[in-house]
Every structure is written in C-alpha cells, then in structure tokens.
Write a structure and sequence with these properties.
about 180 residues; mainly beta; five-stranded antiparallel beta sheet; 3 helices; about 40% strand
Length: about 180
Amino acid sequence: MNDNGLTELQALVRSITGLSCWYVSCGGVTAPTFRLALGNKVPRERPLNNPAHSEEFRRFEGEANLLVWCSWRLDGADGPLTSSDDVPANIENQLNKLIGACVESVAVAAPAWDLTVRFANGLQLRMFCDHVPGEPSFDGNWEMWRADVAVAVGPGARYVIEARGEPVGPAVPVQS
C-alpha cells in the first residue's frame, strides 16, 4: 500500500477512539474468533436470526465493529487475562469485561498490521496477525467497519480498504 492507504488505515482504526463497547459476540463454533460492537447502535438491514445473540444485537450492529480472526490476547493491569489459546468459557468471561469500556487509544503496527486497542478500564486487547501468505488457515487477520468504510487485514502485509453503503436508519445512542 502507498502512504495514502496507510494514512487512511491509521485514520480508520483511530476513529474508534472514544467509542464504548456495548456487545461482544464470542463462543460457539466460531471460538476463539470474536466481534466487538462499538459506539451507537445502528439498525441492521436484516435482523439476525441466531438466538445465541441478544435481541438487541440481532436488531442492531455497532457504529463501528471489530472482527478478529487471528491470534489475540486480552491483558489486564496485572498481566494476561485470556487469549485465543484459552478455553471458550474463560474467553467469553474475560472478553465480556470489555462491555461498557470506552476505547482510549488504538495503534496499528507495520508490517503485518498488528492492532492494539486500549480501553479506559485498563484492559488492553492485542491482535497478532499470524495468518500469512502461502496456505493460511484463514485468509484474513482482522476486519473493522463503519457505515461508510471497511478494512480487511491479511494475510501477511495485505490490507484492503473499501467503501460501504449507507446505514439503514439513524444510529441509536448507547444507554449508559
């Protein structure tokens, strides 16, 4: 990617600063993959049918969303809390500590676009982009999207930023 693409990638990831996490989708057959819904609630074009999710998440997605496919770790003030290598019950329990937490800072690091998200409650989520070219187990590392733009990262140093359609309806402020 050229410098303009890198500037756009950095701006996109930093755009979640100040947004609070209101839902964590994890567990089940997709473990240890997870998704965070951040910011205001935006009506879905088509509600989800999966009863494993709350009614709220089936009807709304985040103003910003982060989907993680690669290896990751959640750290607390005293050390690691869980990771993509943990048992599903602990992954779910620890990731749910992000609900209500506000994103304090975000950093993306070349060359593989590892992502670090720091939350105001002292938790830090680190994504390690371990899907590389060749024959990776999955063709991406992480994705982030908002109403108008999305980025897909991986494998390796690859990332793609694409425009998205407009949201279906007005965003609903998150109740604190």
